[in-house]
Design goal:
single chain; 376 residues; Methylamine Dehydrogenase, Chain H; four-stranded antiparallel β-sheet; WD40/YVTN_repeat-like_dom_sf; signal; Quinoprotein_ADH-like_sf
């Protein structure tokens, strides 16, 4: 675990917020493709490749789920004539637009349905936001962004202007999730005299007032957050445990926290939380000695864990390759699982039907695939 902690803290490749759950666009199929240099099919998927920290190699791949278009390795570059930047951190769809948070370059990009940029907010000029953007979430016309340094910014999704900030509410903030007009924010860690101090709380912000409502005690080093069926699911990167700790927060029961298992990645759709528990040996980094992946699922309505894999005929290599993303297309329930080879080569995406049937495997077009959004 010490080697794993060193790997995550030094490289910064996997120490990042999982994108706020990949989601479909509105049911309207008249996408805004203004300014597009390319003709794209109606059904679209975008895969954000995080790249490797400080190598300025983040990008976005285009994939046609109906196989009526070619895969485009870096559609952001082809459409905009510029690279995405250093360390793509999170990507979400909201109101027919795609919002991308880039941590190292420290900005928020807004692109239309064809990945043509039509808005950008730079954070680097604001001293309070110099820690870098980590996660984004959307609600009622606003994009909420978390930052290292304990800040959450409220950004108008139309104007891309910061309208308000909550400062000093924590230390290094990570993932966020919205549930019942409340924004749940992971307060992960701080560095004191060169030492990592792992924190143990999730901050709850009332979006009606944009004020902190409460702080919830959770397992140390909270990170990933996902909302499903009025519950909030949390993965804490507790290096003292045998794996990352999966918890459920119940807003309707006083934000009661229940520990329900172990998981390193998750995605949710239609009342099910899809889970991966990946046990990887990083002790000889940059070589990965071994990886053992276990897939399971949690039924939110019944409150039961299913230890049987939700994948029926997964390729054998998927059980022993590092995985950096699980996303679900809410339009049809298809499951996308992405593998990473870190800074050595491009990752791969494995697509499965909702029932777990394997569909295909394709190159993700970059390093460290981390998030996906879908236009159905």
């Amino acid at each position: 675990m010490k080697a794993k902690k060193l790997f995550l803290s030094m490289l910064g490749v996997l120490a990042m917020a999982t994108a706020f759950t990949s989601c479909s666009s509105d049911d309207d199929d008249d996408w805004n493709d203004d300014g597009s240099k390319l003709v794209l099919p109606k059904s679209r998927a975008y895969i954000m490749n995080q790249g490797t920290q400080s190598e300025n190699n983040s990008g976005i791949e285009f994939y046609a789920p109906n196989h009526d278009g070619e895969i485009i390795d870096d559609i952001f570059y082809k459409q905009n004539g510029a690279r995405l930047g250093d360390t793509g951190q999170a990507m979400i769809e909201y109101e027919g637009k795609v919002f991308i948070a880039v941590h190292g370059s420290n900005y928020l990009s807004r692109v239309n349905a064809a990945c043509v940029e039509d808005g950008r907010t730079m954070f680097s000029a604001d001293p309070e936001l110099k820690g870098g953007v980590r996660s984004i979430a959307a609600e009622d016309g606003y994009i909420y962004a978390s930052f290292y340094g304990g800040i959450v910014a409220k950004i108008n999704a139309s104007t891309m202007k910061i309208e308000s900030k909550l400062t000093n509410i924590g230390k290094n903030l990570e993932n966020m999730a919205v549930c019942d007009d409340m924004l749940y924010v992971s307060n992960s860690y701080e560095i004191v005299d060169g030492n990592f101090i792992y924190l143990n709380n999730v901050i709850v912000i009332d979006l009606n007032t944009f004020k902190v409502k409460e702080s919830i005690e959770v397992t140390q080093n909270p990170n990933q957050l996902v909302e499903e069926d009025d519950k909030v699911f949390l993965i804490s990167w507790d290096y003292s445990a045998e794996s990352y700790v999966l918890q459920m927060i119940d807003p309707k029961n006083g934000n009661k926290v229940s520990r329900i298992g172990y998981a390193t990645e998750m995605a949710a759709n239609d009342g099910v939380v899809y889970l991966l528990d990946s046990r990887t040996d990083y002790s000889n980094w940059p070589d990965v000695l071994s990886t053992v992946n276990t897939f399971s699922s949690y039924n939110v309505k019944t409150g039961t864990m299913n230890s049987t894999s939700f994948l029926k005929d997964a390729p054998a290599e998927l059980l022993s390759t590092s995985i950096s993303m699980i996303s679900v297309n809410p339009g049809n329930g298809d499951i996308y699982i992405a593998t990473t080879f870190y800074n050595k080569s491009n990752g791969n995406v494995y697509r499965f039907k909702k029932d777990g049937t394997f569909v295909e495997k394709f190159d993700c077009g970059g390093q460290n695939p981390k998030a996906a959004v879908f236009f159905n």
